[in-house]
Automatic annotation (TrEMBL):
The keyword Nucleus applies. This is Structural maintenance of chromosomes protein 5. Transmembrane segments: none annotated. Residues 196-227, 619-695, 751-792, 839-876 form a coiled coil. GO terms for molecular function: ATP binding; single-stranded DNA binding. It comes from Rosa chinensis (China rose). The keyword Nucleus applies. It comes from the Eukaryota. Keywords: ATP-binding, Chromosome, Coiled coil, Nucleotide-binding, Nucleus. InterPro entries: P-loop_NTPase (IPR027417), RecF/RecN/SMC_N (IPR003395). The lineage of its organism: Eukaryota, Viridiplantae, Streptophyta, Embryophyta, Tracheophyta. It is found in: Chromosome; Nucleus. One of its GO terms (biological process) is double-strand break repair via homologous recombination. Residues 23-988 form the RecF/RecN/SMC N-terminal domain. GO terms for cellular component: nucleus; Smc5-Smc6 complex.
Length: 1050
């Protein structure tokens, strides 16, 4: 068979045979299954071989994540932290890419940790992810393109690609880089063309409909316009009506102004006459004021004279009072002298009596012995009381500690009982509606049972880990959690009879001594992540635990980690048929006939019953501790009470002694105070007696008082003489005042006669004033009405030259104008209209027609421009794409012929529907069959794998990417197709334009043909692999490596 024609060279390889962007080295640390790994791939086909679980797919994950990929594209974990090896906190991926020259190496490192944090390094320098992404895009590395990067967990996705998706992926992976960009532009522009075509068609139809409708309504519109003209004429007439009313108000205003002018003239004449009559009256008033001023001066003199006379009278009265006081003082002096002599006599007698009392006081002696005896007794009793206080304080301290412990115990017991209530409520919410009644009945009748009764089982089980609680709840049947467990058949019968109405099961534990499986985790289990067994993760009374293990096989259900989830297929090989992981519950069963193992996987549900852990043993211990503490508290309280009584008795005796000593000291103090008081009183009486004997002589005092009285009488005589002179002067002032007052009365009479005459003229002036005010009010009212009329008229219409000319043609009176308005309105109303809004609709529609016509022309121009742009792009894109698909088809068909089957690749074109363009892969694996589109409905899994790998091989020499990764694509192929497929890969790898390729497989067929373009990368893991790996890396032969392994095992 002829060789396929060679494609044109696209990429120049370096001397080291690597293309720019190829992977030259991969280094991993704590990544997935690897502690550390260093891999140097070849420049062409790299066959990564290793048994299942050895870490081949881990290498694929490292390439994807290390070159900017997200975890979601791998189809495994969704967070980057899940790729850190179990038990480690961080990991790193280091990938070396070949630069544009052999000496240029591009080293990209990604550090990740279990908290989903990432750090990027470029040639050892920390950089943002954006910079790394730009470097990867420069080499056209697309880890999210299934034609370039096909991990194991996404192989099925490639087969599910629609023709449209396959075309998109192919455009991005091979051919001209502008192809996908042009394709996207064509899709967008074609969608825009369709939208514009629909808009042009729709708008054209709408425009024609609106034009036809306007043509039908033109006659009705003309009638509307005639009616509007008549109504407009009537409205113009109505505009003149307020101006006619304004002219009428203006004439009324001018008449009022004339009346106001006449009233003002009359008022001025009356005011002039009043002024002439007022002048003589004012003259008389001024003369009267002069006389009144003089009269006031005389009045002031009279008042001054009266004031002086009052002062002289007051002075004389004051002097008389002083004379009488002196006479009284002389009489008092005589009586005081007699009283002083009597007091001197009494003072001498009191002094003698006090001296005799002081002499008769007995001498004071202190009872020293008795005071010392009382002091000793008080000190002794004080010491006893302090000792009792110390004992009581110690007891109080111990009592406080016991009370605190009792309080803590009660608080913790209450919390535990509260947790029990929460668990009972959880049971009630899940169907056990009368569980509270059943539990309370069991507690109230606990004394009637022969042996310990447990229940509900949920309260007896204590699980410390919530994940384990979810496992246990999912494994044990729900009815068991509300069950009660007895250890005696009579107790069981009693419970069944009384709890039957509460709908709770009763189980009887007979203690048959059945032995459970011994708990042991082997190294194989640990390697798969298994770390415990379901019967080891909870605490419960023996009877409860035995029932759960016996009925539900908890000793045969194991617990694993996320690592166990990833290696679930290997767990059943250890004989474990039931195990739990954080995400799933695995159940395996072995066929009785063929021994085949079938498995079922269920997701782990969150625990609904175990809201919190409940330790029943802890509750019993707390209750026992509570009783002991209560007894201790009672004993200590009694001891404190007895010590308090003894202390009180001692303190009472001590108080009595204190009181006796205080009484003695008080008596001694009273005697001393009495003696001091007597001595002080004697001294005071001696001083007082001396002062009384030193008093002035009575005769001398009387002479002084008589001399003072004589002086006061002389002053009284002089005051009487001055009073006489003032009385004469007062009479003269009174006479002058009366004469001037009479003159003032004469002036008042003359003024009153003149005012009577002027009253008549004031009435006339007042009437003129009132008339002027009325005229002003009338003018103001007319002015306001005129202003209001003008404002109203201006609000209706402002006078313009055009409007003024129109007004000249209208009637000049209000009556004629109103009649003309009514006649014009009648003519307008005589024109009948079925649709009053027809004119507005016509004009609005006409505006829409103009706007739509403009928009239609613009859309047509834009449509022509877009069609031209589509044609230009299509002329560039479609021939290139057809040529690319033809080249792929040529290689694909040739590769299928090599495998004795048939296949073709074609471009599915859809005219202007560029989003429907696609690539169809048609294959047939039997001579009698027809070519069928590749799908899960027509081909088996192995056939789809062959078709997929051959399609990828067909892209090898067309691709512009530096490397391609395919993970376990040969799984499901029969040996014949697998051998042919391998030959195709080797042949493709030998082509000059072939990029670097990684093929991951757990096995290779024997006797395959290899070329220099093939590089084998064996992945081996195990506890003794580190030393052989170092020897192998140093270049030693396989025999030396095997010998080293033998020694390690020995």
């Amino acid at each position: 068979m002829a060789e396929p024609r060679a494609k044109r060279p696209k990429i120049t390889r370096g001397e080291d045979d690597y293309m720019p962007g190829s992977i030259t080295e991969i280094e991993l640390h704590n990544f997935m299954t690897f502690d550390k790994l260093k891999c140097i791939p070849g420049s062409r086909l790299n066959l990564v071989i290793g048994p299942n679980g050895s870490g081949k797919s881990s290498l694929v994950c490292a390439i994807a994540l290390g070159l900017g990929g997200e975890p979601q594209l791998l189809g495994r974990a969704t967070s980057v932290g899940a790729y850190v090896k179990r038990g480690e906190t961080s990991a790193h991926i280091k990938i070396t890419l070949r630069g544009n020259t052999r000496e240029e190496n591009i080293i990209i490192m990604r550090k990740i940790d279990a908290r989903n944090k990432s750090e990027w390094l470029y040639n050892g320098k920390v950089v943002p992810k954006k910079e790394v992404t730009e470097i990867i895009q420069r080499f056209n590395i697309q880890v999210n393109n299934l034609t370039q990067f096909l991990p194991q967990d996404r192989v099925c996705e490639f087969a599910k690609l629609t023709p449209v998706q396959l075309l998109e992926e192919t455009e991005k992976a091979v051919g001209d880089p502008q192809l996908p960009i042009q394709h996207r532009e064509l899709i967008e522009i074609s969608k825009k063309v369709k939208r514009i075509e629909q808009a042009v068609e729709k708008n054209g139809e709408t425009l024609n409909q609106m034009k036809a409708l306007n043509a039908e309504q033109e006659k009705d519109v003309e009638r509307v316009r005639q009616r509007d003209e008549l109504l407009a004429k009537a409205e113009t007439m109505k505009k003149k009506l307020p101006w006619l009313k304004y002219d009428m108000k203006k004439s009324e205003y001018m008449e009022a102004k004339e009346k106001e002018k006449d009233s003002k003239k009359k008022l001025d004449d009356a005011a002039r006459i009043l002024n002439d009559l007022q002048e003589p009256i004012e003259k008389k008033r001024k003369e009267k004021a002069i006389w009144e001023s003089r009269n006031k001066q005389v009045g002031k003199l009279i008042n001054g004279n009266a004031s002086k006379r009052r002062e002289l009278l007051e002075k004389e009265d004051r002097l008389g009072v002083q004379v009488q006081g002196k006479y009284k003082q002389m009489e008092d002096s005589r009586r005081e002298e007699e009283s002083r002599q009597q007091e001197i006599l009494r003072g001498k007698e009191d002094l003698a009596a006090a001296e005799r009392e002081l002499e008769n006081l007995p001498p004071s002696a202190l009872p020293t012995d008795e005071l010392k005896r009382l002091g000793y007794q008080i000190v002794e009793l004080g010491g006893s009381a302090n000792a009792k206080r110390a004992q009581k304080s110690e007891k109080d301290k111990h009592l406080s500690e016991k009370k605190a412990s009792l309080h803590a115990c009660l608080h913790k017991l209450k919390e535990m009982e509260s947790a029990s209530s929460k668990l009972l409520l959880a049971l009630k919410n899940t169907g056990a509606h009368k569980i509270f009644e059943a539990y309370n009945w069991m507690k109230e009748h606990r004394h009637e049972f022969n042996k310990e009764v447990y229940g509900p089982v949920l309260l007896e089980v204590n699980v410390s880990d919530r994940r384990h609680a979810a496992y246990l709840e999912g494994h044990v049947a729900h009815y068991v959690w509300k069950s009660f467990i007895t250890q005696d058949s009579r107790d069981r019968d009693l419970l069944v009879r009384n709890l039957k109405s509460f709908d709770v099961p009763v189980l009887n534990y007979v203690g048959n001594g059945s032995r459970q499986e011994p708990f042991h985790i082997s190294e194989e289990m640990s390697a798969l992540g298994i770390y415990s067994r379901l019967d080891q993760v909870f605490d419960a009374p023996t009877a409860v635990k035995e029932v759960l293990i016996g009925q539900f096989g908890l000793d045969r259900s194991y617990i694993g980690s996320q690592q166990t989830d990833q290696k679930a297929d290997l767990v059943s090989k250890l004989g474990i048929l039931d195990f739990w992981t954080p995400e799933n519950h695995y159940r395996c069963s072995v066929s009785r006939y063929g021994g085949h193992v079938s498995s079922s996987v269920e997701p782990v549900d969150r625990s609904k019953l175990f809201l919190c852990g409940l330790d029943t043993g802890e509750i019993e211990r707390l209750k026992s501790n509570k009783i002991e503490l209560e007894e201790s508290v009672a004993t200590l309280q009694e001891s404190v009470r007895l010590l308090q009584i003894e202390q009180s008795q001692i303190e009472d005796e001590e108080a009595k002694l204190h009181k006796r000593r205080e009484e003695i000291q008080k008596n001694i103090t009273n005697e001393k105070r009495r003696r001091r008081d007597l001595e002080k009183r004697i001294e005071q009486r001696k001083v007082k007696l001396a002062n009384m004997e030193k008093a002035d002589d009575v005769d001398t005092t009387m002479a002084k008082l008589k001399e003072h009285v004589a002086k006061l009488n002389i002053e009284r005589f002089h005051s009487v003489l001055e009073l006489k002179v003032l009385l004469v002067e007062a009479v003269s002032f009174k006479q002058s005042f009366i004469e001037q007052h009479m003159v003032g009365i004469e002036f008042d009479a003359q003024i009153r006669e003149m005012e009577v005459n002027i009253k008549q003229h004031e009435k006339s002036a007042l009437q003129a004033t009132l008339q002027l005010d009325e005229s002003k009010k009338e003018v103001e009212v007319c002015r306001q009405q005129l202003s209001a009329a003008k404002n109203h008229a201006e609000s209706i219409a402002m006078i313009t030259s055009e409007l003024q000319r129109a007004f000249l043609e209208m009637p000049t009176t209000i009556e004629d104008l109103e009649a003309a308005i009514e006649e014009t309105a009648s003519q307008a109303n005589s024109i009948l209209l079925l649709n009053h809004n027809i004119l507005k609709e016509y004009e609005d529609r006409q505006h829409k027609i103009e706007a739509m016509a403009t928009k239609l022309e613009e859309d047509k121009a834009e449509l022509m421009r877009c069609i031209a742009e589509v044609d230009n792009l299509k002329e560039t894109w479609l021939p290139t794409l057809r040529n690319l698909v033809a080249q792929i088809n040529e290689t694909f068909s040739w590769n299928f012929q090599e495998m004795a089957v048939a296949g073709e690749v074609s471009l599915d074109e859809h005219d202007m529907d560029f989003d429907q363009f696609g690539i169809l892969i048609k294959v047939k694996f039997r001579q009698a069959g027809q070519l069928q589109v590749l799908s899960a409905h027509h081909q088996s899994g192995g056939e789809r794998s062959v078709s997929t790998i051959l399609y990828l091989v067909s892209l090898q020499d067309l691709t512009n990417c530096p490397f391609r990764v395919v993970d376990e694509i040969n799984q499901g192929m029969d040996p014949i197709n697998e051998r042919k497929m391998f030959q195709q890969l080797v042949r493709a790898a030998s082509q000059p334009n072939t990029p670097q390729c990684f093929l991951l497989t757990p096995k290779l067929l024997p006797d395959l043909e290899y070329s220099e373009a093939c590089t084998l990368l064996n992945i081996m893991t195990g506890p003794w692999i580190e030393q052989p790996a170092e020897v192998w890396s140093s270049g030693d032969c396989w025999g030396n490596v095997m010998g080293l392994v033998g020694k390690s095992q020995c």
